[in-house]
Write a structure and sequence with these properties.
Elements: E1 2-6, H1 15-33, H2 36-46, H3 57-60, H4 68-89, H5 91-112, H6 124-137, E2 142-149, E3 152-159, H7 160-178, H8 183-186, H9 190-203, H10 212-220
Antiparallel strand pairs: 1-2, 2-3
């Protein structure tokens, strides 16, 4: 299932979401122009490597990506779910929330992968935190989703809590099966996704948010 857009209106430009997408894209394009040895050094310096943890990598790793599908998928999910969360938090609080979720998701992965020499990179954990916050704050939203049905592909509006709970279940099941494998064999930081989602779902309650009715009043004031 591929989410296309949500039904929840946002009332302010998601400047931070757009900036994050631009920064991630710029870093990825920089990765593409690096020669192989330089790229390897770049990743080992800035990605999260559990067996030799560098504290800066808890933050920097969320701005690196491993391929076109990786970055496109991450930025697409950030665009769909991030604008509404930025809307209720405000720009500065949203940036802090996003970075905090990213760091906590990296710590979750580190805890489950101590001793692994495999670099971990990507914004998935931070974005999972945004998705967790969306689930907590927009329980009545629906997500227009591309769904394959036998040989056909159609679009269906799916309740956001159902879609996000289904996504989380996939992470938990996949992470459980991958727990006995090496990081190379599993290939995905499942516990970063899980940790990020849970962090976002819980932490959003500690952040000051702007109620919908206030946003409506501001929006319609001449």
């Amino acid at each position: 299932m591929i989410p296309l857009r949500d039904t929840e209106r946002s009332y302010a430009k998601p400047y931070v979401v757009m900036a994050l997408i631009a920064i991630n894209a710029a870093v990825f394009l920089y990765q593409l122009i690096l020669p192989p040895q330089a790229l390897e050094r770049f990743i080992l310096t800035w990605a999260l490597v559990p067996d030799r943890l560098a504290l800066h990598s808890l933050a920097t790793s969320m701005f690196l990506h491993g391929g076109w599908l990786h970055i496109i998928g991450n930025m697409w999910f950030l665009w769909i779910f991030g604008d509404n969360v930025e809307d209720i938090l405000g720009h500065k609080r949203f940036l802090g929330f996003y970075l905090l979720c990213g760091v906590l998701s990296a710590l979750a992965h580190f805890t489950m992968s101590i001793g692994s020499p495999v670099p971990t990179l990507g914004a998935s954990g931070a974005i999972a935190g945004v998705m967790g916050a969306y689930m907590a704050k927009f329980p009545h939203s629906r997500i227009l989703t591309l769904v394959p049905i036998f040989v056909f592909i159609t679009t269906v509006e799916i309740p956001a809590p159902f879609l996000l709970a289904y996504w989380l279940l996939i992470q938990v099941v996949s992470g459980t099966f991958a727990a006995g494998q090496s990081a190379i064999a599993s290939g995905t930081a499942w516990f970063a996704h899980i940790g990020g989602f849970i962090a976002g779902f819980l932490l959003i309650r500690l952040f000051k948010t702007q109620p919908l009715h206030r946003r409506l009043e501001v929006d319609w004031t001449p």
